[in-house]
Amino acid sequence: MFELIRDAIAAHQTIILHRHTNPDGDALGSQIGLKHLILANYPDKTVHMVGDGAGRYGFMEDSIMDEIPDSAYLGALAIVLDTSAKSLISDTRYTLAAQTARIDHHIFVEKIADIEATDDTFESCCGLVAQMAQECSWSLNPQAATALFTGMVTDSGRFRFSCVSGDTMRLAAMLLDTGIDTEWLFANLYSVEYNSLKFKAYVYENMHRTENGVAYFSVSKDVQTQFGLSYEQASAAISYLEGIRGYLCWLAFIESPDGSTRVRLRSRFLTINQVAEKYHGGGHACASGATVYSTDEAAALIADADEAVREYKAAHENWL
Ligand code: AMP
């Protein structure tokens, strides 16, 4: 699956790694992990990472992006990681590269690059990059392995989602064998600021529920300021509504700096990406993103999600 990308890496002196905006652990992990894999196996290459800041994942080693001029793209290979749509790529200059490639695990939306290696059965893009390292018989160092393991852990819900297989665990084991400091990693993933706890209480106090089983909440820019939260920190609150019995879909409406509203959609058992796609979005079957531009549009999205849950409950038993 990775021969063409491996050959493209071998053929180019400069490789520039892109991923989606507002990076999560998987976007950064695949970017940092691939950088260190290339450097460990092709020490003479120049590898740059570009994109917006690491935000909540700034604890990851080597997560500071490079500032590069447009001229760096001359004759270079650009690889886009963990990104399903062109509009989501952070730093659009990937189009300046001599050749482009993409490694991704999202449901296919559109072709992005000259060479594509996508597989939506993988829990994470980091899992795909780990598989690539194995298929290419690349040597693996703890720096690459830690970054890739972080993405596998975070995008799989700590190895909990249904897409996690024996193969996932075998790749994770290969990474762990290099000596990853998991205590440090999980401390960074789980520790929270006191203000975040206060915000969590606010979300539970102000959440809403629909008739058929959608739970949702909104966070305006004013509330983000009130709790001293960055936009990304406010967006992370989607996880607070996970696991409420009977509420098979949960949504977060987060007012963006540009005034539009980012919607994060999550579900268990039923698919929700078809709702996201109706509202300028897309993503995975049970974890998608969308954007709405008015309260009417937000209400319509909630009604569509409610209808999806109603239909699912009418046709299935044993949901909880
Ligand atoms: P998020 O809630 O932003 O973490 O998004 C969940 C998943 O949906 C991620 O894998 C995103 O890459 C994907 N996603 C978010 N927004 C969009 C969009 N506008 N188009 C396609 N996929 C998206």
Oligomer: single chain
Q: What is the number of strand segments?
A: 11
Number of helices: 11
Distance between the termini: 38 Å
Enumerate the spans where pLDDT stays under 50 for 5 or more consecutive residues.
none
Q: What is the spatial order of strands in the main beta sheet?
A: 6-7-8-9-11-10
Largest sheet: 6 strands, mixed
State the shape.
globular
Can you list the ligands bound to this structure? Answer: adenosine monophosphate
What's the helix-strand series?
A: HEHEEEEHHHHHEEHHEEHEEH
Strand content: 15-25%
Mean pLDDT: 97
Radius of gyration, whole Å: 20 Å
Structural class: alpha/beta
State the helical fraction. 25-40%
Chain-wise SSE layout:
Blueprint: H1 3-11, E1 14-19, H2 25-41, E2 46-49, E3 77-81, E4 99-104, E5 115-118, H3 125-135, H4 142-155, H5 166-176, H6 182-190, H7 194-206, E6 208-209, E7 214-219, H8 221-226, H9 231-235, E8 249-255, E9 261-267, H10 273-278, E10 282-283, E11 287-292, H11 295-315
Parallel strand pairs: 1-2, 1-3, 3-4, 4-5, 7-8
Antiparallel strand pairs: 6-7, 8-9, 9-11, 10-11
Bound molecules: adenosine monophosphate.
